[in-house]
What does this fold into?
Amino acid sequence: MNVWIRKVHMYLGLVNFSLLVVFGLAGLIVTAEAPDIFRQKQGPAVTSREFTAPPSASDREVGQLLAESLAPPHSGPPVIRRNAANQIVTEFYSVNGMTRVTLLESERRAQIQTFRNSIWRFIDNAHATTIGEQSRSTAVRLWAWYIELSIWSLVLMALSGVWLGVTARWKFRWTRVSLAAGFAAFVVLYWVAR
Amino acid sequence: MHKVVRNTHLILGMGSVFFVLMYAVSAAQMAHRIRVTPQIVEEDLALAPGLEPRPLAEALMRDRGYRGELGNPAITPKGFRVNIGRPGRQYVVNYDRATGVAHVRRETRSFLGMLNRLHHQHGLRHEDGVLNAWGWALLLVSLALLAIGASGVYLWFKMHRERLIGSVLLGANLVVSLALLVALRFQF
It folds into this structure.
């Protein structure tokens, strides 16, 4: 049976290799506290285009109209609010950062600020793109399903790895030491963080 | 060389398996939006009036056993509101400067809720040593994950009978994932 478990362990690792790298890099990126879109040196790119809000529309309807015409690729549902200057602001979040559209009603114009993130924050966002995302983008959906596959593969790889270590390499002292040390570290850290 | 890589793969895997399972289970919880409802208890405490956020937090930690990191205070009409928390427990303290009354909302997280919070725990510059310890754990597990992946590919490559099917699987992984990442980044 161990022959087949080893094969499954290995094949899952190969099918998910690049996603394991993404997961590992994401951990390093947040540990290093790589600047996010609001703290990075490069400010937002600002453009504008003509836009007239229908006089009878609610804020939500105006936000939806802005979303239909200006939503960037891969973004999720817009977040619609009014800012301190009482302007309608519609924000679109995606794996690439955030796009903020501010409606300048008196000028019949929409100002578009594009906060594009660094490649590091892109990787961090990619690792967090799951099937819970509400995006209509095909690329986002496919990537999210690949992440889903990787999550469950990680569970299977962890369990099959422990099985292989315990059944095939138990006499090797470091198998027992590393498993016990990892377990003890996890239990202690969990306990003190309660 | 082969023996060293094989043992390294084994030791890193065994040492990090519980952390990896924690990240995977909490990722599944988030992806499937499984609700994690904390247990909530509210109470009013009589404290000295006129305290600032840090002395207030110090008093609560010293006299009432609160633990965790102090969050950014938010100004309220009568005083301020602060969060003090660790992954397993969060205190939201609404303090009235004039009377010294603090309304405390204590949220105790379930096992899944705790895993969720631990998944998000990162950074090595917290004032709370426990949070720094989890930051170090994340750093070490991330490095271990990268090393396990690289050593796993090496170990597969040394198994000559598995090269064909392994190449197909690894090739498919690289082509599909890189194509998707490029599509996401360059907005195709």
Summary: The beta strands of chain B are 39-46, 69-70, 74-76, 79-86, 89-96, 101-108. The two ends of chain B are 43 Å apart (CA to CA). The mean pLDDT of chain B is 94. Helices of chain B lie at 2-31, 53-64, 111-120, 129-157, 163-185.
